[in-house]
């Protein structure tokens, strides 16, 4: 319950709107961002049953532009970015030469020779720096446009219904926009908006990239349109429990420099079949050390949740066989869920383990991720 | 709901209602707000001996875990079962139905007044 004041606090272009909406704020990578508006649980349930609107303006947006931009990103990132069609998006990783994860990213191809790379707020500088360096041998340019791009996300089963009715928002083919595709649109005629069917909650939804000065108008237009359908503004607390239920990794928790993609279940994101070298290829091919811990899901009974840094045991033995990276009492499921790295011998589904919850060992079962999957529509 | 201005407070964001030798203890609205939605409350057993400043229970939200500290030396007279069954009472009525424990104490340590506590949390 201690409060820290960052020396240089940063504010979203939507800060005023959040203050007026009664938000509580939390420091996230130096940014003062809404942690909740009224209730974490209410916001969580709204996203599962109707829709929630998130401000993600703290995230980093780096543009890679030029005739060799695709080749440059094939070299810089773990995936085959040249295989991404214009309008399509791809989840990818920025690997260290030694094989660990510098950041996880979403790359949007917004033109034949133009890509938008979206990075975690805490990694914006390192991603921009690495991309600049890795792309320098290629004919392309790298711009950190994070300060000129705001990001709002509408997530939940009613997202399409609401977004399609927002006055002044004009996006061709919104209904046909497929998951992990984006389309440029306009807001109030003059303002460009990139609308993407992406998200981090396990629900259908859209992310909208706009200029910071337009963001408040767009935010309020979406809120006004969705209020009758159960849309609420949603803070980072609910975003965290939503992504946890959906089994989505969070940088700094499930992902980090000390983690190989294969350990995190992200082996498929590293394309070893693509032609040419890429940063981290050699290490990825060698793989993590034998016996390296792997990411699993844990579920328990009752209400006491294991949380980040709690140890996992196989029985009475003193030596831990794993550690939790994220955990909470799942608001949707009603029981505790956690993601943990465990020794591979204990990673099989159905295995019975124990979480040390502040001195008490609570039985937990290994399950495959995600914990929650929406019913396909 | 207790009159906030006549309650005593601790630096751990607990309120204490003193009635004779009984102290009713809960967490303040400020603490409840900081925790977020409370989803689990663990309270000491009736009859347990508690020591001032020592952890006697837990208040968990979706986000984090808060500890309940005993504000006095004494014996637990009552634990609020309603809050164990419905932890959200800590958020909806922290100074009333969200009370946590009642403790029979021998002597009362120095606690903060409403004005002092308000100053602490900057309100």
The first-level CATH class name of the domain at 10-57 and 149-245 in chain A = Alpha Beta
Strand order within the widest sheet of chain A? 11-12-13-14-10-4-15
Q: Can you name the CATH architecture of the domain at 10-57 and 149-245 in chain A? A: 2-Layer Sandwich
Here the CATH topology of the domain at 10-57 and 149-245 in chain A equals Gyrase A, domain 2
Q: Could you tell me the strand content of chain A as a percent range? A: 25-35%
Helical content of chain B (DSSP H or I, runs of 4+): 10-25%
Structural class of chain A: alpha+beta
Question: SSE string of chain A, helix = H, strand = E?
Answer: EHEEHEEHEEEHEEHEEEEHEHHEEEEEE
Give the strand line-up of the largest sheet of chain B.
1-2-3-9-8-5
Tell me the number of strands of chain B. 9
Q: Looking at the structure, what is the overall shape of chain B?
A: globular
Instruction: Write down the Rg of chain B.
Output: 13 Å
Structural class of chain B: alpha+beta
- From the structure provided, what is the oligomeric state, counting identical versus distinct chains? heterodimer
- Tell me about the largest β-sheet of chain B: 6 strands, antiparallel
Distance between the termini of chain A: 42 Å
What are the defining features of this structure?
heterodimer, A: alpha+beta, Gyrase A, domain 2, seven-stranded mixed sheet, disordered N terminus, B: alpha+beta, OB fold (Dihydrolipoamide Acetyltransferase, E2P), 4 helices
């Amino acid at each position: 319950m201690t409060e820290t004041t960052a020396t240089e606090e940063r504010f979203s272009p939507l800060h005023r709107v959040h203050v007026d909406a009664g938000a509580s704020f939390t420091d996230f990578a130096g940014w003062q961002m809404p942690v909740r508006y009224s209730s974490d649980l209410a916001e969580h349930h709204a996203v599962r049953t109707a829709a929630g609107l998130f401000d993600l303006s703290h995230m980093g947006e780096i543009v890679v532009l030029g005739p060799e931009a695709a080749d440059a990103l094939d070299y810089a990132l773990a995936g085959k970015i040249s295989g991404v069609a214009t309008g399509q998006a791809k989840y990818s990783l920025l690997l260290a030469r030694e094989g660990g994860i510098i950041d996880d990213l979403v790359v949007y191809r917004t033109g034949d020779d133009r890509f938008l790379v979206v990075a975690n707020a805490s990694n914006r500088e390192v991603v921009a720096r690495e991309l600049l360096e890795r792309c320098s041998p290629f004919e392309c340019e790298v711009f950190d446009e994070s300060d000129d791009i705001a990001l709002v996300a509408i997530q939940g089963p009613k997202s399409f219904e609401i977004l399609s009715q927002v006055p002044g928002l004009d996006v061709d083919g919104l209904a046909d926009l497929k998951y992990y595709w984006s389309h440029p649109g306009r807001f109030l005629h003059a303002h460009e908006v990139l609308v993407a069917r992406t998200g981090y909650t396990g629900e259908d939804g859209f992310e909208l990239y706009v200029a910071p000065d337009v963001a408040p108008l767009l935010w309020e237009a979406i809120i006004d349109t969705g209020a009758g359908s159960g849309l609420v503004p949603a803070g980072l607390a609910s975003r965290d429990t939503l992504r946890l239920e959906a089994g989505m990794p969070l940088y700094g928790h499930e992902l980090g420099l000390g983690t190989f993609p294969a350990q995190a279940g992200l082996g498929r994101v590293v394309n070893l079949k693509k032609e040419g070298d890429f940063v981290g290829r050699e290490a990825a091919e060698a793989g993590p050390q034998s016996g390296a811990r792997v990411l699993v899901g844990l579920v328990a009974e009752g209400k006491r949740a294991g949380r980040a840094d709690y140890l996992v045991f196989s029985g009475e033995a003193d030596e831990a066989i794993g550690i939790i990276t994220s955990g909470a009492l799942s608001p949707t499921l009603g029981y505790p869920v956690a993601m943990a790295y465990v020794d591979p011998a204990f990673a099989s589904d159905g295995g019975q383990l124990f979480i040390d919850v502040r001195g008490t060992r609570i039985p937990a079962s290994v399950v495959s991720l995600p914990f929650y999957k929406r019913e396909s529509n | 709901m207790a009159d906030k201005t006549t309650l005593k407070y601790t630096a751990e964001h607990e309120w204490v209602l003193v009635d004779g030798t009984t102290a009713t203890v809960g967490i303040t609205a400020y603490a409840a707000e900081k925790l977020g939605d409370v989803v689990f409350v663990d309270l000491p057993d009736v009859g347990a001996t508690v020591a001032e400043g020592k952890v006697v229970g837990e208040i968990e939200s979706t986000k984090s875990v808060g500890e309940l500290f005993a504000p006095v030396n004494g014996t637990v007279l009552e634990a609020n079962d309603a809050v164990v069954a419905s932890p959200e009472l800590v958020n909806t009525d922290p100074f009333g139905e969200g009370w946590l424990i009642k403790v029979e104490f021998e002597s009362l340590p120095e606690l903060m007044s409403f004005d002092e506590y308000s100053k602490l949390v900057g309100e």
